[in-house]
Amino acid sequence: MTARRRDVLLSAGAFLAAATLPGRAGSAQATGAAGGPPEVVLSGGFVVSMDPSVGDLERGDVHVRDGAIVRVAAAIAAPGVVRRDMSGCVVMPGFVDTHWHMWNSLARGLPQSRLGPFGKTMAPLARAWTPEASALGVRLAAAEAIHAGITTVHNWAHNVKGPDFAEAEREALAASGLRGRFAYGYPQALGEDAAMDLSDLERMRDRHFARESAGLLSLGICARGPDRSAASVWRREWEAARSLGLPITAHVASDRAAAAMGNIVVMHRDGLLGPDVQLVHATHASRDDLRLVAESGSPISISPWTELEVGYGRPAIADMADAGVEMGLSVDNMVLAGHADMFGVMRITADLARGLREDQGALTDRRVLEWATIGGARGLGIAQTTGSLTPGKRADVIAVRRDAINTAPAGTVDFMLTHAAQPANVDFVMVDGVVHKENGRHTRVDVEALLAQAQESIARLRQKAG
């Protein structure tokens, strides 16, 4: 067994070992039938279901059994079932992050250096990166996702330098217990005229994703697309992905120069947009571009904090909403964003839309909350599984304290969630019926040990990169 393989398995084992620790008596972590996910009633919280047929309940219960939502109602009698007191909390679906470069989370806070801005700083680090570092970056990001109430991630793996890098990220993500899509990518140093490793993409699909046993993960590809690779290359990658039945994601119209290339028009003309093709950023997409995107059904993922930090500009959020584009939100990467905070992403999304339109009513708090939950799930093609507290869907549930110094009192629950709450207010996190955070603390991750590994790893990488 190679050192790399051993390290990745040990990383996964750390997650799995933590998951087997017994829960406290009477807690939601109590083991269910046959050792499976627990049956529990999350009781007495302010329920924000994000399902119009269920609505909001000022005081409500959510019944979970075998990893699925059984019922949502004002009061649920379930004799013999553990009840978890959610009073003082908003109970809601977990957040869906639609674009996250999880591998480089170890490089938090290195948006520029003596080498120059973001791209020039990250290039030598990306060359020095190892499969072990990629796995550790995913583990760190996954732990922070749980801390922040993000239960679904779209892992944009855009430094896959070989099959061992892809396996390392996939294994770490699977071991985390998060729901998500692994978007198989390319090496950062790949030339514009060279295609990504399409043969290994097919191998990974056949080995890990060809059956129902793929667990909580699905597979897609992250491509450089028409803005960042030659036409013959990105068209070949599109054709390969679609022949394998895999969804595609690419950064498009991120800056003015990219938008001026007119590639959204080309993609629409040639039938290369659609619900299976997610566009990321689209910061400088025109209103005509956005009309074509909406017409095609392609979703857009935006990350306003990083779009500002890296200098792309201000996304035309209100125009995107007006066009009827399927929208999702993103923390993007920790190098630029600093931390994974979907509450902060919602706030800047709402307020940028209003400020740029000079209209406080340009975008409602509830609309932004939709983008962070059920809208993101629709964009990733998993709205039948997650994104709302709907009976029959999987139990991806979080509880956010509404009685904290920074959240009470609040005029509306929508304002509280989009403008007042922070990751530290996330008290409880459940993914597929399994508890990952309770009473504000991780239940499956040794955070202290993980941070020590991360500090040691990035120090080595920086030394190696020079």
Structure description:
It is a single chain. The chain is an alpha/beta fold. The protein has two domains: 16-93 and 397-442, Urease, subunit C, domain 1; 95-379, Alpha-Beta Barrel (TIM Barrel). 40% of the residues lie in helices and 20% in strands. It contains 17 helices and 17 strands. It has helices spanning 3-19, 118-128, 131-148, 163-176, 198-209, 225-228, 231-243, 256-260, 263-269, 287-296, 304-309, 317-323, 334-337, 342-357, 365-379, 413-420, 447-465; strands at residues 40-48, 56-65, 68-73, 82-85, 89-93, 95-100, 150-157, 179-184, 217-223, 248-252, 277-281, 300-302, 327-329, 397-401, 426-431, 434-438, 441-442. Strands 1, 2, 3, 4, 5, 14, 15, 16 and 17 form a nine-stranded mixed sheet that branches. α3 packs parallel to α4 (163-176). The longest helix has 19 residues, at 447-465. The chain is globular and about 65 Å long. Residues 1-27 have low confidence and may be disordered.
Task: Jot down its keywords.
alpha/beta, disordered N terminus, TIM Barrel, 8-stranded parallel sheet, 9-stranded mixed sheet, 17 helices, 2 domains, about 40% helix, about 475 residues, Urease, subunit C, domain 1
